[in-house]
Design brief:
Elements (H helix, E strand, L loop, with lengths): L1 H4 L5 H12 L4 H7 L5 E12 L3 E13 L5 E17 L2 E16 L4 H6 L21 H7 L14 H6 L1 E21 L2 E20 L4 H9 L20 E25 L3 E20 L3 E4 L20 E2 L5 E2 L6 E20 L3 E12 L6 H4 L1 E11 L12 E15 L9 E4 L12 E5 L8 E14 L4 E20 L8 E23 L4 E18 L26 E4 L2 E5 L2 E5 L5 E3 L13 E5 L4 E11 L2 E11 L2 E3 L19 H6 L20 H5 L6 E3 L2 E12 L2 H4 L5 E16 L19 E9 L1
Antiparallel strand pairs: 1-2, 2-3, 3-4, 4-5, 5-6, 6-7, 7-8, 7-9, 8-12, 10-11, 12-13, 13-14, 14-15, 15-18, 16-17, 18-19, 19-20, 20-21, 21-27, 22-26, 23-24, 24-25, 27-28, 28-31, 29-30, 31-32, 32-33
Length: 776
């Protein structure tokens, strides 16, 4: 189209090319060459044995996963060992170890790649040769750039070839070693000393050989070429050959806990169970990242050098567009520590097996909290009671009540948020700045000198019951949680260098109810039924928050910037579309008046942004049923979430700064829609503010719909072979099973979209598992 508009091709040539493109459809080629059927294969082996004083358990697992994309897969290996030994009458020893190795190959394309291609971007020509999926505006490249004179004359891209010329992998290994000594000191008194060490290695390796587009693009674009000075001079600033990128992350975790426990019946009517202990945990994380190795040869392990240096103010180099560039050449390192300390104790006293009184108290401390002891060490506690009413004398003749217990608890818990720090932190640059020829730094955190634990006070009232000879059982819980000292983005005087900072000054209340009902019945001599129904409701509200001025730009984006006192923490704030005025789309602004779509209104955003509801389901439902008929078992699980909203897919109005944006599936909706109800395409050819439409059109009220949905989450069918059959082949407990997951979903929104797997991402697909288990 552009070539015809600028007169480089005729209208007839343009129409012929468009007619040809209309005949092309790359769906089959994408399916044949790039996509795969996702599968998972798992093998398990467990071995156990021992004696009267020792038991051993060993399990091995191997799993292979094939993703939706060819050349993207993973393999996992897991070894687990556990030993329990009775050393003496008063000492028990427990040892455990496990090792996990996981290797991911990520050579295949991604969903982002697929979304960036047009339907007519074929992967192969009719003669079987590879096509060029344009990464450049090819006509300009052909007319104005002497591509053959660059280090690599091939500027084409084809995903099939790209996959074949790169090796992208992630190796992960993790080992854990555990040990515990249990001392039986006195009657009812035991002591335990437990330790754990865990380490993990996470290695990322990306290798592109010189036939890959990634290498050719990087080397060619970094070449100095100034057509206005001498169009025949080309200076290569990177060596020929492959490019290798590597990064390694290591974590070390230490955990030590010592604990005393006393559990004993005191006479006929009293029972005491108490424990006290201390625990220390240290987590150290280290990152090591190498600069890209240019000119890398996988066979000889040779690495190239910068022909003209890495660039910089003393020796600047320029790319093929005339822009000054520098190449990373320094190693980067990272080091983090997290240390936690806890001292705790709890006790429960039972009287006549009817009345239970319990309580707990603990001190927690963390190095992520301020170094001021007033805030670093935080005490937390809980207290509760339970009454087993079914054991009372007046309930002896109530035969239909098997169990009836009432309980109440109150406590205060803590949480620390590592997203901010108690001191200002800076992040230094990894290489000298181009202009000052020195290292610069930016603020990673402005600091919160009174950073402290977030605290939550909990009230819980509950009833547990079992009726009609256990044919109906369940529990009911009512709770209220008051969160204080919560971290949130709050307004501060700009004299501090920023007008917003995370501080412990927010408060929130959560109220809810949880109900669980179950049944277990013998419908006949061969048929048994077990069913469970779980229901929960939760409502939250921000009860304290200081914000001088809400930010209309940030509120529709969510997060703590969207917190408003008196509202749900997950409220969706959206712009209200108000139709066309003066040939321009508008939205509701101050005083309810239409305001230009591309302009930011002043004043309080709460007066013109619309509360569309909460984006987290207040109601959740789970329903499980299991039927056993002779040696067959059949079960299914249904889940549901209700009362919330989500944002449906809207049209991707292309911004000015992106050269190529493919219209998504909502183009027809925009073209045929009512401009008074949905933002149309620009009505003016020279709209100078169209570049900002993308932000507003993606945050419109008409995109919000109900997120309520129901899923058939899981279906299981199994058959247990009779022992008369399995014993003949030397096996025990032979079980043949089949399982289906995510088989069906029902959505209440008119768009027919899955609220948890939005359009443009990989949708939730049904999966099927078949297996065989046996003992020998």
């Amino acid at each position: 189209m552009n070539e015809a508009n600028y007169g480089f091709i005729s209208k007839a040539e343009r129409d012929a090319q468009l007619a040809n493109l209309k005949t092309l459809d790359n769906k089959k080629q994408i399916s044949d060459y790039l996509l795969a059927n996702p599968t998972a294969t798992q093998y398990n082996l467990s071995i156990s044995g021992g004696s009267e004083r020792m038991t051993n358990y060993l399990s091995l697992m191997h799993q292979s996963n094939q993703s939706n994309f060819k050349e993207t897969d993973s393999k996992k290996y897991l070894i687990n060992f556990r030993n329990n030994s009775s050393i003496t009458k008063w000492l028990d020893l427990t040892l455990g170890a496990n090792y996990l190795y996981n290797k991911d190959n990520n050579n295949g394309v991604t969903l982002t790649d697929l979304n960036s291609w047009s339907p007519y971007d074929m992967l192969k020509n009719p003669d079987g040769s590879y096509t060029n999926i344009h990464r450049y505006y090819t006509p300009i490249l052909d007319r104005d750039v002497p591509t053959a004179s660059f280090p690599y004359s091939d500027w084409t891209y084809n995903p099939i070839l790209e996959i074949a010329n790169r090796k992208l992998s992630v190796d992960q290994s993790q080992a854990r070693f555990q040990g515990a000594l249990n001392f039986k000191l006195l009657n009812g008194l035991t002591a335990e000393l437990r330790g754990q060490y865990e380490y993990g290695n996470y290695n990322t390796r990306e290798l592109y050989n010189e036939n890959s587009f990634e290498v050719r693009k990087t080397v060619n674009e970094s070449t100095t070429w100034d057509s206005s000075v001498d169009p025949n001079v080309f200076i290569a600033n990177l060596p020929l050959g492959g490019i290798l990128k590597q990064k390694r992350v290591r974590t070390d975790l230490y955990n030590v806990r010592g604990q005393l426990r006393y559990n004993r019946e005191l006479g006929m009517d009293h029972e005491l169970d108490a424990l006290a202990g201390m625990e220390f945990q240290s987590l150290v994380g280290q990152t090591f990242e190498n600069p890209p190795a240019y000119g890398y040869n996988e066979e000889t392990l040779a690495v190239g050098t910068f022909p003209n240096g890495p660039g910089g103010p003393n020796s600047p180099i320029y790319d093929y567009m005339g822009q000054e560039i520098t190449f990373p050449y320094l190693n980067t390192f990272g080091y983090t520590t997290q240390r936690l300390f806890s001292a705790y104790g709890n006790a429960a006293y039972t009287y006549k097996q009817k009345y239970v009184l319990s309580g707990s108290y603990r001190f927690d401390a963390s190095n992520l909290i301020t170094d001021n002891p007033r805030y670093r060490y935080a005490p937390f506690f809980s207290i509760g009671g339970m009454w087993h009413a079914h054991k009372e004398g007046f309930m002896e003749n109530v035969d239909w009540v098997d169990r009836l217990s009432a309980r109440i608890t109150y406590g205060k818990l803590g949480n620390y948020d590592p997203s901010t720090t108690f001191r200002p932190l800076i992040t230094p640059s990894q290489s000298p700045d181009l202009y000052i020829n020195g290292l610069i730094a930016s603020f990673a955190s402005y600091g919160n000198p009174t950073l402290r634990w977030e605290q939550t006070s909990n009230w819980d009232l509950g009833v547990d019951f079992s009726l009609f000879d256990h044919k109906l059982f369940g529990k009911l819980d009512l709770y209220k949680k008051n969160g204080t000292d919560l971290l949130a983005e709050l307004s501060i005087p700009s004299i501090h260098g920023t007008f917003m900072q995370k501080l412990n000054n927010a408060a929130m209340v959560n109220k809810g109810v949880e109900v669980e009902l179950g049944t277990s019945q013998n419908l006949s001599s061969d048929l048994q039924w077990t069913g469970n129904l779980n229901f929960s409701y939760n409502k939250n509200e921000i009860t304290d928050l200081f914000v001088v001025n809400y930010n209309a730009f940030q509120m529709p984006l969510g997060g703590t910037a969207a917190y408003v006192k008196g509202y749900d923490a997950n409220t969706a704030w959206r712009w209200q579309y108000s139709g066309i005025e003066n040939n321009q789309p508008t939205k509701i602004g101050p005083e309810g008046q239409p305001f230009p779509l591309s302009a930011f209104p002043e004043g309080d955003p709460l007066t013109y942004l619309k509360n569309m509801g909460t984006m987290v389901a207040p109601y959740t439902l789970g329903f499980m049923n299991s039927f056993k008929y002779k040696d067959f078992n059949f079960s299914f699980i249904v889940t549901g979430k209700f009362g919330h909203v989500f944002q449906t897919l809207g049209f991707n109005y292309p911004p000015n700064w992106v050269s190529r944006v493919l219209p998504n599936a909502k183009l027809t909706e925009v073209n045929s829609g009512d401009p008074s109800k949905i933002v149309p395409l620009p009505l003016n050819k020279d709209d100078s503010e169209y570049y900002i439409w993308e932000y507003f059109t993606s945050s419109m009220d008409y995109l919000i719909q109900s997120a309520s949905h129901v899923r058939l989450q899981e279906v299981n069918l199994s058959y247990t072979f009779p022992s008369s059959i399995s014993n003949k082949i030397g096996l025990n407990n032979v079980l043949l099973y089949a399982q289906g997951n995510n088989l069906f979903s029902f959505y209440s929104n008119k768009a027919g979209e899955d609220p948890e797997y939005p359009m443009g991402s990989l949708r939730l697909m049904p999966s099927y598992t078949f297996g065989l288990k046996f003992d020998f």
